[in-house]
Structures are given as structure tokens and as C-alpha cells.
From TrEMBL:
Organism in which the protein naturally occurs: Sulfurirhabdus autotrophica
Domain CusB-like beta-barrel: 211-277
Entry GO CC: efflux pump complex
Matches recorded under SUPFAM superfamilies: HlyD-like secretion proteins
Name under which the protein is recorded: RND family efflux transporter MFP subunit
Pfam families: Beta-barrel_RND_2 (PF25954), BSH_CzcB (PF25973), RND-MFP_C (PF25967)
Coiled coil: none
Sequence ranges assigned to domain Multidrug resistance protein MdtA-like C-terminal permuted SH3 in this UniProt record: 285-342
Record PANTHER family: HLYD FAMILY OF SECRETION PROTEINS (PTHR30469:SF15), MULTIDRUG RESISTANCE PROTEIN MDTA (PTHR30469)
Amino acid sequence: MKKQPLIMIVLSASLLFGCGKKVEEQKKGPPATIVTVAKSQVQTVEVLQESVGVIDTDSAPTLSAEVSAKVEQVLADTGDLVKPGQVLAILDKKDLSNALKVAQAEAARIDALLESQRKSTERNRQLAAQNFISPTKLDDSVALLNALEAQLKASRAAQDIASHNLSKIKVVAPVASRVEQRFISKGDYVTPGKPLFLLATSQNLMVRLPFPEGVADQIKPGLTVRLTTPTAPNKSVVGKVQEVRTMVGAANRAFEAIVEVANPGDWKPGASVTAALVVAEHPGAVVVPEASLVLRPAGKVVYVIENDKAMQRLVSVGERIGGVVEITSGLKEGEMVAVDGAGFLTDKAVVKIQNSQSDNSNAEARK
């Protein structure tokens, strides 16, 4: 009978210990969520329109034959890079050389006749002054002299033309360029106007960027454009929209923006190009990493870290660019937001900061 009080004491102590443990567990709560954090920052956000276009050349001269002759040599082919004055083809000069000799001989013949007629006319003037010949005969002599002088001018012009034609037997590149197409082969007979070579200059480039009609009100001359091409991935070129044109044959009012740029060195006509047009700028915009933005039933939210707790903040967003998102309302510059792990948070959840953008981030997040 004396053992009963002892048993009661032991049971009471056990109950008290068990209840204390449960109260302690209730006070402790769920474990903290591990997150990384970053400060919201202010920067200028660019509104971009992107397009994939093609590099063209702003100058594509077609070299054509200027004389009639047979092709004797072809010294350039499609794809060749040529320098100014480089000979691309040589035409047979035999017929042109003979034509020059004929013109020279004709000019010499008329010159001799003219010299003789000058002397004859001078004698006739003297005879007419002494009334030994009629004025009519003197007039005929003067008329013949004038005719021969005109013939001499014509023959010398024909001589110049023949000499000029002979100089055209060598087809030369007018500028530094690339042979896009060759239209002739050795032995072909060409006539004036027949295309011989199509050249493409690469010093100045024209980039064509197609856009749908839905963004027509945004694309205007003067906009800044950043260009890259797969043929030279390590180089970026900045240019300006020079012109906006309706695309030929487009049934849906599609249009293209024309951008003229200097070749940075190894960009090639015909290559594709990726463009980002800056259609607007938002200076002083608040931005956060994209990973910090979370979609909840209430809308898009970020979690602001205060005193080791995640405070849910409903925000409005603008542009997304370069891994950051523009916050147009709901957040101020310098506030600390959860980044990695933000998707696992709820409002007022306890957090543990693993690392951040600065050594003082943990302290700042707890203030």
C-alpha cells in the first residue's frame, strides 16, 4: 500500500515531461527554407524587337562588255576576292587593233588631202584677186577645204574611238569586291552590253530585316540596331535603321527595315544576321533576377526578405531582358528578394540565407 504514492509521483513527472516536449516542438515550428537573395537594382531597360534577316551589299556592279570580241582569257571565277584594277578577263585584240590602224590611215589620208587643198585654195585667192578666175571657182575651193577639215575631225574622232575600244580588251575590277557570278568562258564571243561578271562589294553592307505588320508602328528610321551573324559570332555591330520598306510580294503588309553598316572585316553578303532593335527605353527601372518572380493565385509576386522571413509582395512586371525582369510597381530599389528557392516560399515563411550578392547581405536581410 505504501508503494502507490511513489507510482503516482513517477507518472505525474512523465506526463509533465511529455507535455513540455510537445509545447517546445510547437514553439519551434517548421524548418527554415534555404534561399539565396539579391537586391533589386535600378537600370535602363531596353524594349527590343528581334528579327532574323540577311546581309546584302549596297553595291553590286555588273561588269559588261564594251566592245565586240572573242574571250581570250578568263582570269577570275565565282567566289574570288579581287582588288581594284585587277584584270578579270582578256578579249582578243586582233580586230580592234586592225580597226585602229584603219582609222589612223584614214586620218592620215584626209590630212594629206587637206594640206593640198589649203595650198590650192590660197592660190585661187590670189588668182581671184587678180581676176584670173571667177569668184565661183574660189567659193568651190573654199567649200572643199572646209569639207576636208570636217572629214579630218571625223576621222580623228574615229581614231580615238578605235583606240578607246582597243583599251577595253582587258576587263578590270573597278573596286575591291567579290566575284558573285561569272557569265563567260574562254572562246565566247561577246558584244557591247553582254554581262561578264557580277561583283559584290563588301566594304559597306546593307542588312534587310523582315517584320510583321503588327509592329509597324514601332519600327522607324533612326532606331539603334545591334547585329550579329553566325559567320562571325564574336563580333557585334551597332547600326541605325535607314529606311522602312514594304516587302515586295507580301500579301499581309509585312515590311523590312534597312540597316547600312560598315563591314567589320569578315561579314559576308548572303549570310544570315540576328538583329535586336531598341524601340524604346525605360530609364530608372527597378529590376530583379527572373528567378525571383513567382506566380501565385494572387498574381505575380516576389518575396522580400525581412528579419529572416519572406514577405510576399504582389508586383507588376514589364520587360524581360538578359536574365532580369522589370518591376513596374510593388518594389523599390535596394530591397532584398529571394532568388533560388523563391518558388518554395509562402508569405511570412522563415528562411535561411545561404549566400547572396555581397558579404553584408545576410545582415541587411535581417534588419
